[in-house]
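A sample copied in:

***
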Amino acid sequence: MFDFVNRFKVVTLGARMTKQKLITLKKTTEEEFWDATKAVKKLIDDYTKSIEFLRISFDNFLENGNQGERYRAFYPEIRIEVKSFAAIDSRLSFGHVTEPGIYAATVTQPKLFENYLIQQISLLIENHKVPITISASKTPIPLHFAMKGKLVSNPKSDIDEFPLRDVFDVPDLSTTNDNIVNGTVSSSSSDLNSLCLFTAQRVDYSLARLDHYTATDPKHFQNFVLFTNYQFYVDEFEHFARRALNNPDSGYESFVGPENFEIFSSQTAIPRSSKLPQMPSYHLKRSDGNGITLVNIGVGPSNAKTATDHIAVLRPQAWLMLGHCAGLRNSQRLGDFVLAHAYLREDKVLDEDLPSWVPVPALAEVQIALEQAVADVTQLKGYDLKQIMRTGTVATVDNRNWELREQMGPVHRLSQSRAIALDMESATVAANGYRFRIPYGTLLCVSDKPLHGELKLPGMASEFYKTQVSQHLSIGVRTMEILQKMPLGRLQSRKLRSFNETAFL
């Protein structure tokens, strides 16, 4: 079934040396393509062969133990060589490179990213008038990422003189990082330039974590993502999804919940899991992937960073934060909406990746869509609209009980920043959207007013903002539907692109 190449590798075991036979797949033929669809087909074929090789090798290892062999397969690679400084006439912020050089990207799970890869490769070929090369990379595929859904362990590891990582490649955190995204990747004249923001290992790592945290397969995630911090929103999203499935003109085809349970009819019951995952996710799907995903990230900036760190590799078109917040102005009422146009970042979780002195601007396209959605759903405009929706700075903190601290410092900073609301997730979601070049926005609902004696205690206002949740979620969904219809070049603008940007979106 496979063509193998045998090599020998010297391995040190304690005080002795031994020869270990390295078994790899015969290197796939390097091919040039002018057709993106054919290029992606080769990526899928090459990756599938590598994965099957590792799975068969692992089964053989479990059955026969270690025979002095090491198994290795490699990620496929996309490469393009550009020889001209000629400016590209494109309205898009992606799909082209700015200077001559050789650009490359390792690829994992190309079937999952098929449409995305075809789009990106097509733009490169069209803009630069040069072919794309598909070949094997020099980056090994870690065994754990090849064995999706299958336990990876060596039952003989306690007695076998060869640990599992002496036989297979395993995830290497030293090479799984955000250096490209953060603009800190080291380069030299001999290095290949990056085509995309993430390496294959980084993508595989996040896909595995997503499956773990959300209990849904990454293939179900849609291009428009809503984040929330309350179960109320999940319940309302399911109600909306069932209504959408009842409407043949909605464009939505199915609804997926944790454990990948998928329904196609509004009448089908969804079994309730006795143990929800840490960040349960729900997906209202369209055939083109432009549906809506809702993720209940829970409370706190750490959760917000974790979710967005991993979802970012799926390259969604936009994400929004919908949740509850503390209103900081006396004129606000419980249930009022807050549209963030700036963020006071005291979440601390992103300080090393994106220092707090970096401004996180409001994106006009998203802000306009959010305000339009509020007007559409509430049927209010002008002064009446402003009565229920205030625009201003949202402060995000990492201390849920900030009210218990000495008030002079926190309240002074909130006043200086002109903050009108406070939560524990919004600035983190927005800052990671900025960092990962994903359009972002925030619309919150006031659930308490701690500076004015209206504390969030059991039973207080719960019935009131339960009724607000339905309206709030409808606004979020309506916003996504507005963004869905927006031209890609307008939504994915140059505002989020750095000086030395990758060609892939």
